[in-house]
Amino acid sequence: MRTLGLTVRQIRYEQKIFWRTPAAVFFTFAFPILLLVIFATLNRGQHLDLLGGIPFAQYYVPAMGVFGVVSACYGNFSARFVFRRESGLLKRTRATPLPLGVLLAGFAANAVIVSMLVVALSTVVGVAAYHVSFPGRWVALSLTLVCGAAAFCALGLALTCAIPNVDAADPMIYATLMPALFISGGFFPVASSSALGRLSEVLPVRHLIAAAFASFDPRAGAGGGGGVAWGDLAVVAAWGLAAALVAVRGFRWEPGRH
């Protein structure tokens, strides 16, 4: 019970810090919605032959939901962790009774909460403004988001092991994040038969987008298993497990030597 109470308090603390940081709120929460409005409006009336002629927004809404998950659980998670480590806050936390598991749970839960809000708002905007249909596959969508959030939190933590200081955090985060999103179909579907498509097949972003789209795909029989793309989720989970092992081996409390 004590651990649970500490975890709840840590989550509340992380939420307060997040919402009081305008830059984090904009790039993690508002930016995906802004991109959704811009791209969906520019491509209103367009249909995707690559996906059987479905409207562009039908694909783009789950893709932007994934953008929100990855931004919160990979980008914001790792940036905030590096800041606390390099500023000495993490080292001071080590001297307190707060367990490492509770600290990481607070980081991860905050990222998951924010990413879920982004997905929910993206869906509402898509349905209300761009006539996106959601087939009601709540279980499939929830499973996809939880699996994706856990995996990308692990990937974000693993990345912090390679980031030497605060100045290098944003360049390293976005140098790995944005190219992966572009070639994985984060902004427009990429044919799996293309060179970029084949390259992105090994990346977890593409598989998370595919799994999220399976929950929205209006075509009969899409996704199978109630919209759960088990194969794609298996790839995402495998990346998350590998990243967790790297994070455990490379984790450090103290700032690096400059």
Unreliable runs? none
Query: What value does the Rg take, in angstroms?
Result: 19 Å
Task: Report the sheet with the most strands, covering strand number, pairing sense and barrel closure.
Answer: 2 strands, antiparallel
Percent strand: under 5%
Q: What quaternary form is this?
A: single chain
Structural class: mainly alpha
Mean pLDDT: 88
Count of spatially separate domains: 1
Residues in helix, %: over 70%
CA(first)-CA(last) distance? 41 Å
Let me know the number of strands: 2
Shape: globular
In spatial order, strands of the major sheet run 1-2
The helix-strand sequence is: HHEEHHHHHHHH
Helical element count? 10
Task: Describe the structure concisely.
This protein is mostly helical and 258 residues long. The chain has helices at 2-19, 22-42, 56-86, 89-94, 100-130, 138-160, 166-183, 195-200, 204-216, 230-250, and strands at 47-48, 54-55. It has one domain.
